[in-house]
Specification:
It is found in: Cell membrane. The structure is a single chain. The chain is mostly helical. The protein has one domain: Rhopdopsin 7-helix transmembrane proteins (Up-down Bundle), CATH 1.20.1070.10. The chain has 12 helices and 5 strands. Helix 1 runs antiparallel to helix 2, helix 1 runs antiparallel to helix 3 and helix 4 runs antiparallel to helix 9. It starts with 8 loop residues before the first strand and ends with a strand.
Amino acid sequence: MTNSSQVLFFFLTAYIDSGVLAYLYFTAVLLLYILIIVSNVLLIAVICVNQSLHEPMYMFLCSLFVNELYGSSGLFPFLLVQILSHLHSVAAPFCLLQVFIVHSYGAVEFLNLAVMSYDRYLAICYPLQYNTRMTPTKIAALIAVSWLYPFVAMSFMMSLVPVKLCRNQINKVYCDMHSLVKLACSDAALTNIYGLIATFSTIFISLLLILYSYIKILAVCFSGSKQTRQKAVNTCTPHLASILNFTCAGSFEISQSRFDMSFLPNVLRIFLSLYFLPAKPLFNPLMYGLKMSKIRNICKIKRWGVTF
């Protein structure tokens, strides 16, 4: 291949021949995708329909659940097609679309978690001033920034995709930016540098805000009443679990993209690579649905069905 205009398809070489087990894998992935869609859509509907949940924390949760649907939809339909395929190829436009979705999903996720930690900081440290500080305008602005910044950054990054590609084989089960950069014939230093800056600035800013918020929350908990500590535990536990889960999964995916991880078994690399995308869309609705008392009480299944 001498020019990207001639690259009509990319071949994904990380897939293994699973034979008749492909139908079992297809069924498992399909059921997982259905579960993710149902659980996230259910919680979005619960938050939207119930007036009692029209609070800042639940608005940010709703944004988080929408992002889970966005990210999982960029992977699962693709996986379902590839599992039953014998060639494991993807058209170049669809590959680029998946790159955009996967990377923007990760950035939106981190920024959403940072915004949620800031919200918890205000609610616990400034309970009397919370409603005046977290206004509807501010809520809308925070949600808009957490979505617009990744989309703008990724749009610019996509314009830096190398023009000349010498190969069309990607050693993964889905497309990502660094895998495309590795196929470049010429030096792709500019794309690499921008990718590193965009990735680590998003992570650094998000983690900085999260750490600041939780240091302040811990300070209030140690000096506050038992009721304050209980409130902090109830509202912050699912958020902290979500941060740790996503950070660990994202760290491995970034490391695998940037460094040689061939010493790990292929099956393990595929599993850990995929864990980055499906884990959160399933983990978050289950964690928040079970742990947040308001959502749990509304979602209780009664004799005649689910009550909203």
